[in-house]
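Hello again, I could really use a second opinion on something today. I've dropped the whole record in just underneath, so have a look.
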Amino acid sequence: MSKLTRQSIVFTGGFFLFLIDRLLKFLSENIFTTQKIFFKIFGWNPYRNPGIAFNLPLPNWLSVSLTIPILLIIIFLLVKFCKNQNYLYLFVGLSAIFWGALSNLIDRLLFQSTIDYWLLGTGLINLSDLLIISGFVIILLPTKFFNS
């Protein structure tokens, strides 16, 4: 399988995870609006998070104005790494960050907050948060773990 085919699969897979996140956010806002907690540390707990990571307070306008240029930089880097196919791990990581950040940006534009729905330990997260975290982990891991 060519690297361009793998990149297409990765980017398309990220898009489908983006769609799943959008669906879960819709469900948490409209259908499954009540808590379902197991063992007090895991479960479904819809919440509108007005802050950024770890519920840190940041005005919505500032969060949006920082996210848009970051997304543009990521698009530029994705195009660059698409042409230089020796950096598949960077393409995978940036794709994950792109789709996660885009989903959270849509929330901020529509609701002035992000929609979190999973309780994990003491924090609330969503699939787009997991995409962003996974993308950073993939980028920061040594390249010896990847077959690029």
Summary: The two ends are 12 Å apart (CA to CA). Residues 14 and 128 are 10 Å apart (CA to CA). Strands lie at 36-38, 42-49, 114-120, 123-125.
